[in-house]
Amino acid sequence: MEKNWAGNVTYRATEIHHPATLADLRSTIAKSRQIRALGTRHSFNELANTGGELVSLARMPKFVEFDTGAPSVKVSADLRYSQFVEDLDKKGFALPNLASLPHISVAGAIATATHGSGSGNGSLSTSVAGLEIVTADGSSVTLNRGDDDFDGAVVNLGALGVVTSVTLDLVPAFEIRQYVHEGLPLAADILGVLDGAYSVSLFTDWSGDTINQVWVKQRTQDPEFIPDGTTPADGPRHPIPGMATENCTQQLGVPGRFFERLPHFRPEFTPSAGEELQTEFMVARNDAVAALQAINEIREHIHPVLQISEIRAIKADQLWLSPYYQRDTVSIHFTWIADGTVVMPVISMVSERLAEFDARPHWAKIFDIAPEVLQSRYERLQDFDDLARRLDPAGKFRNEFVAEILSPR
């Protein structure tokens, strides 16, 4: 049976289609009664699942088309970031940010508002300038930034159709130096540390009042940032103690191209600790210190079932279903052991602790928030539902996961 990357979700689809051309894809979608797109399978929940059919774009033609005047690049939606970022660099361009895993697909990342880090950096979705979608009747719709529905269509949960191409804004290519520092007190100026460099990640196992590691990714032209109270790592580090550091991007201040340093993990290696479950909650920047303290108060429940936790900053945006909609954000991420029976009660406990901060979950990770509560935390959810009904009036792309979030048909 087909499973997701983590192995915790078994796909129930009656058939998985692998069209080789755009015409084949349009025909497949038009004939289907219920269908969802299947990407690189990095969703930890039922977002991509369906009892109908699944469609993979893996056999579709791949393309990377530059517009140096914009500058922008149009790519086939199923491409993994690792498959084209080096091409950008060779042309003298870069993406402003990348996720910790370069193994994920463009369409999947933007559909779920996946992000990197940096208080001045938006999620990967904010680089989208345009996208092409095959909708329920098999026709194609093109939306560009500035169009009425664009801000609703980027973070789309796969509920509008199957995205076939994405146009991304580019910036001039740049280099990054990456350092790891250890032993940051949890009582330190956490927001100041997150603001200290182009991209900063804090890793903790919640075993005490200390952040285990601070990963600092700074542009080579920027002054070196050393968080107060920390000690520079004396060698390469993996976020999870005991894991092979060869899997991680190079550290110790050795300069590298943007795509070689912004991710935590190298594309040619298995990116994490193996089987795992993941949860992530986003809180407003102004609430971050209090939220972290609330989590720290239940650390004796978290630590035994945790592999590692990561804290990052993300800039606000205007995308309707983005967890960063109209608020600068700090994310609190948990990589759990692969045992749902012991992990789910702790996820519920974390969710309860963060409820007063109106925490928004990462759409592709495990969360335990009632639909009506979730609906109250997304001001434009009804607008998105209206957009989905216009593009998909019969609910062809609406699986159980999406139907719970949106209003019932």
UniProtKB/TrEMBL annotation:
The keyword Cell inner membrane does not apply. GO terms for cellular component: membrane. PROSITE patterns: FAD_PCMH. It comes from the Bacteria. This is Xylitol oxidase. Residues 9-173 form the FAD-binding PCMH-type domain. It comes from Kibdelosporangium aridum. The keyword Oxidoreductase applies. One of its GO terms (molecular function) is L-gulono-1,4-lactone dehydrogenase activity.
